[in-house]
Design a protein that fits this description.
- This protein is an all-alpha fold and 54 residues long.
- It contains 1 helix and no strands.
- The protein starts with 27 loop residues before the first helix and ends with a helix.
Length: 54
């Protein structure tokens, strides 16, 4: 799965967006969690850079 790091916090899918079968690969929830993790990692990195003295 190739991800772009979103510039805004990802929005969780609606419960109706998931079929519930467990056979989708990736599931909309898997994709959301991966996007959320990438976004949080980017934010963390940005905060560290802001705190570093120049």
């Amino acid at each position: 799965m190739r991800l772009r790091i979103p510039t805004e916090e990802p929005v969780a899918p609606e419960s109706s967006d998931c079929c519930g079968s467990g056979s989708c690969c990736p599931c909309v929830w898997d994709y959301y969690r991966a996007q959320q993790k990438a976004w949080l990692g980017q934010k963390e990195q940005e905060q560290k850079q802001e705190q570093e003295p120049e």
